[in-house]
Design goal:
InterPro entries: Aldolase_TIM, Glu_synthdom
Structural class: alpha+beta
Order of helices and strands: EEHEHEH
Protein name: Glutamate synthase conserved region-containing protein
Number of strands: 4
Distance between the termini: 21 Å
Organism: Flavobacterium xueshanense
Family: Belongs to the glutamate synthase family.
Pfam family, one: Glu_synthase
Strand order of the largest sheet: 1-4
Strand content: 15-25%
Length: about 90
């Protein structure tokens, strides 16, 4: 299964920081970042900008992964955000 993380409750809309000690060789290869550095993650995805763009992105991931299941994780703050996903 492939999981897309859209947001998290603790810091919604703020991105994240991966400290140097967690920047492993595997992370360097997967994310294409420099080793031994702190990595700043943007608060949004560069592959799509809204919910309408998420659907084609999921379809592309499914095709590229030979049909693996695709899930997404997010934090919903209000009813309007929930309805946008539905």
């Amino acid at each position: 299964m492939i999981e897309i993380k859209l947001s998290q409750g603790a810091k919604r809309g703020h991105g994240g920081v991966l400290p140097v000690r967690k920047n492993t060789v595997q992370i360097v290869k997967i994310r294409g970042v420099l080793p031994n550095t702190t990595i700043l993650s943007p608060p949004s995805h560069s592959a799509f900008k809204d919910i309408k763009g998420l659907i084609p992105f999921i379809a592309k991931l499914r095709q590229l992964s030979n049909g693996k299941l695709i899930g997404f994780k997010l934090c919903i703050g209000n009813t309007r955000e929930f309805k946008m996903i539905c």
